[in-house]
Request: fold
Amino acid sequence: EQEQEEQAANDSSRHGGRVRCFPHERGNWATYVYLPYQAQEDFLELLDLLVSHARTYVPSLTAMDEFHVSLSQSVVLRYHWINPFVQSLKERLASFHRFFCVAGRVKVYTNQNKTRTFVGLEVSAGHFQLLELVSEVDKVMEEFDLPTFYKDPSFHISLAWCVGDLTGSLEGQCLRELQDIVDRFEDSELLLRVQWEEIRCKSGNKFFSFPLR
Reply:
């Protein structure tokens, strides 16, 4: 019991919720909670158009091969905390129903320490439900003395990323042209209306799924 408490104090002081890039240590599992998005063919087609256009501004841009909306920061869990953590998530998320989001606004993001830049689709409709989910996930984080999610988050599906802070090259002209591609894309309204069916937690190489009702 004592070892656990010592470890908790040690972890939260060391990471302080600020550092995203933590070294992998034995028994430390990088963990995050998210809504998985299953990309269909037409979404990948749109992605392709956006990324190849954005590359005319930032050639080093790489398309994501997996899509989701984050509900937590990436945190470090001790191995023996994984099961109680997942159990606690399961209890807190059990009453949530499926819901829709619309993600049609192209936006540029950087990670906290500005070492990476992302192009994403920001969620407009569905923001309130996402905040409700985060509030439950945050309570679990607090229980385990881990950093909670960002205040006033901009929920989004990341589409592509590059190393460094290239906000300057992607915002303005490039962003307007990308938005134009989205708006003109066939059936973009339908395509970017997403129904969430489950919440997932990834810890190290393990996945846990919490179906929405």
User: Anything to note?
Assistant: The chain has a mean pLDDT of 90. The first strand starts at residue 28 and ends at 37. The CA atoms of residues 141 and 182 lie 36 Å apart.
